[in-house]
Amino acid sequence: MRPLSSKSFASAFASTSSSISNVSYSSAKNLAFQRFAAKHQGLTRVRPAFLSSTSRTGGPVSMSAADATHFDYLVIGAGSGGMASARRAATYGKKVAVVEKGRLGGTCVNVGCVPKKVMWNAASIAETLHDMKHYGFTLDKEAKFDWKFLKDARDKYIKRLNGIYAGNMENSKVVSIKGMASFTSPNSVQVVDGDGEPATYTADHVLIATGGYPVFPSGGGVREHSISSDGFFELEELPKKVVVVGAGYIAVELAGVLNALGSDTSLVLRKQKALREFDDMISDQLDLEMVKQGITIHRNTNGVKSITSDGKTKTVHLQNGEVITDVDVVLMAAGRAPLVESLNLSMAGVSQKENKGTIVVNDYSETTTKGVFAIGDVCGNVELTPMAIAAGRRLADRLFGGPEWKNAKVSYDNVPTVVFSHPPIGTIGLTEKQAIEKYGQNNVKIYRSKFANLYYGPWQVDQDDKPKTAMKLICAGDTELVVGLHVIGVGADEMLQGFGIAMKMGATKADFDSCIAIHPTAAEEFVTLFPWGLSKQETGAKITPLNGAPNPEPKLPVSS
Questions:
Q1: Of 484, 486, 489, 481, nearest in space to 510 by CA
Q2: Where does 263-363 have alpha helices with state H?
Q3: How many C-beta atoms surround the C-beta of residue 320 within 10 A?
Q4: How far is the first Cα of the chain from the last one, in angstroms, to the nearest whole number?
Q5: For residue 214, what pLDDT is reported?
Q6: Residue 6 neighbours by CB under 8 Å, 6+ apart
Q7: What is the model's pLDDT at position 545?
Q8: Alpha carbon 123 to chain centroid distance?
Q9: Gap between the Cα atoms of 108 and 384, Å rounded
Q10: What is the pLDDT of residue 67?
Q11: β-bridge pairing 180-185 and 188-192
Q12: For the chain (length 560 residues), average pLDDT per consecutive 10?
C-alpha cells in the first residue's frame, strides 16, 4: 500500500465535508479518506459503507484513516453463508468487511441452486408438454425449445440477484473488498486485487466461508475434454448427446434436466446405482424412473479411464472396457473439494482434515486457531446453502450478540434435503439402515407407501407403467419417535419443509396421525400411513395435539 499524501487527503476532506452537511465531522473525514484511497491507491473495491451507520444500541459507527483497514469481523467469501454472517454482525453495530474475488452470492446463486432450479423448471415444463395428451391437449405444431433464450433469461436473472446482494451489503453497511485473500497471520489477511495490487487488513475475528469447487478425476484427456457442473451453465446450446459422470445429487439432477430437454443422456456410475448414501427406497426408485425416462446408465464402471476427441465429438473410455462414442459434451460431477488452496491456512495455524482438506471446526464453528472461524462447504458438514446461512448467523450472534447468545450454535441433525431429480426427492433424518444400526432392529418400525400420484390417474396406460411416488416413515422406540422421513415423487420438494419442522420438534407417529389429511394430495399419505391411529398415544409436542386436545394458546403480555 502506497503512503498517503497528507496534502492530497486534506484536499479530499475539504471537498467532501463541504458537500455533506448532515453528517458528523468524523463521518465526513472517514468518507473522504475512503474516496481518496479509492482514487489514489487502487482501493476501488472498498465501499464508503460507514458514512452514517447506527448500531442497535444507537451509537454511531465511524472509521478514521488510522483504522480504515481494521475490522471487528472480516469474512472471506461472499457466498450465502458468508454474506448472512457479515450482515448479521453488522446489525450489532460492528465494523464488518467481506472479501470476494468473484461474483457475489457464491456457488448457490451463480452456478448452483438457483440457476439449477431454473433449468429444472424448464425440464419440468418439457415433461408437462409430453404429458398433456393424457389430459386431452394437442398442439397444431411441435413445441420447440430455445436453449439460448432460456440461458440469456437465466443469466439476466442471476445478474439481477448479484445486484441485489450488492445492495444488501451496502444497506447493511458492510464493506466490500474485491480480490484474492490469503492469511499472513491469524488476524491479518492480504488481499490482491485484479490489478495485482496487495492490501493488508486486520480483524478481531476472521470467518472463512469460501465454499468448494468441482474436481476432475484423473485420466487421459479428462480435464481437457470435459466440463464441470460450473461449465454446464456456460453451455451455449443443448448438446445432442451427453455423458454425465457421477453418482451424487449434482449428477442425477443435471442428467435429469438434459434428458428431459432432449439430449441423448448417459449416466456413468462407478458402482451399481446413484445416491448410494440415501435410503435404499430412494435410490432404487430413482434408478427405475431414470431408466423409464430413457437415461442410459452405465453401471459398475469404476469410472472414466480416458476421453479422446476428433475435434467434433468425443469418445469416452470407461475403466471396465465400455466405450461411449459420438459424444458432444462430457460433464464431470464426480465430487467437490474445499476452496482453500489460496488461503495460506498454515500462516493462521488452521488445521485441515487429512483426507479431504476440509477445515477442522467444533460445534461453534471455531477452527483450531483462536479468532478464526469457518462455516459452510469448506468444513464438509452438511454441504447445503441454508445450513451455511444458519451457521453464519448463529456465529455472528454468539460473537457479537451479548450474553443471551453466548452459547448460540446450529444443529447439523435432522436437516431436510431435496434433490431436484426427475422425479424430485425429499429426505430428512436417518435411513433405515442407519436407524437399525443406531437403535437395533427390534426398536425400529418402518411405515411404507407406494402409489401412482393422482396426476397420473386419467392416463390410459398400464398401472405398472405410471410413475410412482414412494414414501417411508422410520420410527424408533416405544413412543415411535419419527427419526427418518423419505419421499420420491411429484411434489416431494414442496412437501418436505413442514415435516422437517415436525421432526425437529420431536414428532411421533401418533403426532403425525393426529394431523387431519389434506385431500387429495400426495403429502396426506404421511399422516395416514397404515395402520393409522393405532400407535402408542405419546406426543413429542410441548402441548399435546392428541385425542382431540384443544389448540395451544399464545402467551400474551399482561396489561396494566
A1: 481
A2: 280-292
A3: 13
A4: 61
A5: 97
A6: none
A7: 85
A8: 20
A9: 9
A10: 73
A11: antiparallel
A12: 39 39 38 41 33 36 64 98 98 98 96 98 97 95 95 98 96 97 98 96 98 96 98 98 98 98 98 98 98 98 98 97 98 96 97 95 98 97 96 98 95 96 98 97 97 96 95 96 97 96 95 96 95 92 84 75
* Cell numbers at 188, concatenated: 491479518
Catalytic residue among 40, 225, 486, 519: 519
- CA pair distance 357, 380, nearest whole angstrom: 9
Q: Tell me, yes or no, if 519 is annotated catalytic.
A: yes
282 C-beta neighbours (distance < 10 Å), count: 24
Place of cell 387429495: 520
Task: Transcribe 27-74 into DSSP letters.
Answer: HHHHHHHHHHHHHHHS-TT---TTSSEE-TTS-EE---GGGTTEEEEE
Distant-in-sequence, close-in-space partners of 269: CB < 8 Å, separation ≥ 6: 246, 247, 297, 298, 299, 300, 301
Parallel, antiparallel, or unpaired: how do β-strands 241-245 and 329-332 relate?
A: parallel
DSSP label of 387: H
Cα distance between residue 218 and residue 204, in whole Å: 41
Tell me the three-class secondary structure of 384-413, residue by residue: CHHHHHHHHHHHHHHHHCCHHHCCCCCCCC
Q: How far apart are CA 396 and CA 394, in angstroms?
A: 5
Strand-pairing partners, residue 245, are 268, 332
